[in-house]
Amino acid sequence: MEEAKSQSLEEDFEGQATHTGPKGVINDWRKFKLESEDSDSVPPSKKEILRQMSSPQSRDNKDSKERFSRKMSIQEYELIHRDKEDENCLRKYRRQCMQDMHQKLSFGPRYGFVYELETGEQFLETIEKEQKITTIVVHIYEDGIKGCDALNSSFTCLAVEYPMVKFCKIKASNTGARDRFSSDVLPTLLVYKGGELISNFISVSEQFAEEFFAGDVESFLNEYGLLPERETHALDQTNTEEDIE
Q: Its quaternary structure (predicted)?
């Protein structure tokens, strides 16, 4: 008695619940697609095919087993091919959404070039009046100091790659604090955010090889978590995932 009741409950459960296995999920999706299609827009032959593909297989129904084991018909292939086209459209839509999202999330001003600060007052104004969300990287340099030219060139490249970061440079002699920035500590990098100094690196060229480039400076700043994610890298990663799919 108890066993029969349990079996009855199991049958009721199987009749009401959605499939949880991989094949079950596919069947549920096909059934949902059939039910969601406009009955006037789907030919009866295709509706019947979808119904056959979405119907669960009976344990004792030999006809059902034969139906599921038969080769795929041309009509079934056309339906699946159409579904793949729908998936391609969905991927294109997702890529467009990703691009829109990156544009919206990259809020705040955008720069894209290196700012030359002429005076100490301009330096202070840049730090104090910039938006709190903006990271400001300042290179204090002087002509003829080893590593300064290479760092300025690196800044030019990084400013393009990270337009949401404000890259600046100022001669030590123009800061109004030349005694603090002698040739012994140049080139110096100062990083600000929200008006606060969050990192400083004196004689930063010593962290690199004799010759260094923008990629070396980028890696160095990323080690300290001072650069945001590159927008182009995020979008390229999305495109790569879609190509794999």
A: Interacts with CRX. Forms a complex with the beta and gamma subunits of the GTP-binding protein, transducin.
Same domain? 119 vs 218 = yes
Residues 88 and 164 in one domain: no
Give yes or no: residues 92 and 149 share one domain: no
pLDDT of 82 strictly over 60: yes
Residues 195, 125: Cα–Cα separation, whole Å = 10
The answer to whether the peptide bond before residue 163 is cis (omega within 30 degrees of 0) is no
Q: Which domain holds residue 28?
A: 18-54+71-102
Note whether residue 139 is domain-resident: yes
Residues 190 and 91 in one domain: no
Identify the band that residue 10 occupies on the pLDDT scale cut at 50, 70 and 90. very low
Q: Are 130 and 136 in contact (CB under 8 A)?
A: yes
pLDDT digits (tens, 9 = 90+) for 175-203: 988 888 999 999 999 999 999 999 999 99
Q: What residues contact residue 58 under an 8 Å CB cut-off, 6+ apart?
A: 64
Over range 16-22, report the average pLDDT: 47
Tell me the two tokens of residue 182.
Answer: 């002698």
Residue 2 counted as domain residue: no
Pairing of strands 188-193, 196-201: antiparallel
Note whether residue 141 is domain-resident.
yes
**Residue 164, pLDDT above cutoff 70:** yes
Number of domains observed in the structure of the chain: 2
* Residue 43 amino acid letter: P
Torsion of CA 43, 44, 46, 51, to 10 degrees: 140
